[in-house]
Amino acid sequence: MKAPPPSDFRKILERLAHGQDTYRVFDAFVRFAACALAAQTREAEYLEEAKRWKRDELGLFAQALGSLVREMESEPFTDLIGGYYMEFALSSKGQQWNGEYHTPKPICDMMARMAFDPGSLPAEGPITVCEPACGAGAMILSVGEACPPEVRRRLRVTAIDINRTACDMAFINTTLWGIPTRVIHGNTLSSEYWAAWSNIHYIAPWLPYALRPQTPEAREQGQPPKPVEVERIHATVQQQEFAL
Hints:
This protein has helices spanning 9-16, 22-36, 43-50, 55-74, 80-89, 92-98, 105-115, 138-146, 149-152, 164-176, 216-219, 227-243, and strands spanning 127-131, 155-161, 181-187, 192-198. It has 244 residues and is of the alpha/beta class. It folds into 2 domains: 9-98, no CATH class; 105-243, Rossmann fold. Strand 3 (181-187) and strand 4 form a beta hairpin. Helix 1 (9-16) packs antiparallel against helix 4 (55-74) and helix 2 (22-36) packs antiparallel against helix 3 (43-50).
């Protein structure tokens, strides 16, 4: 009798990694997952990555995403993929060279409570949040968890990271937990921004979900931010630096 497929997304990725570079496997996984959750607004990216893998491997990536979603349902607003990225895809030397470290959820929760008081927010209108070095989005998840659902829907998060893989992780986490987020691949320190993706909660929130993929913003997925957006980010970051 054939053994059932593993239900842990980590074990499935480890099966894929036999004889292959673990970082490449993980990067492909989060790319596929982000595209799958993008409501058909990142199809070109998906097809480009799919060319590099066999049919049975694509099936395993799909199984891994299903397993990840099931596990996330049992651990609300927890960054499961960021922690595993540090263990699975990066060596300890890689972490040191890249300056990448995973912040535990209790610390993210404490910092979110210190910096973000839902009770002091305006009663209506969008609430803007900027995370200039978002990683996998663990801090954004803590902010989202601290908000009642009606407040969470009004968030307009800009999440920036220099690591392209981190951008996909942040896209996955914020999409699955319903946090309206625009993820930008860029360098906040040098004000260089190379690509941006808005999750389905961020795109034209006044429209029904079925209509959002047809909007101009949805059709610009993966394009660099426009100069006016870059200026807005720069101004926001300067304000944060001044406040510190």
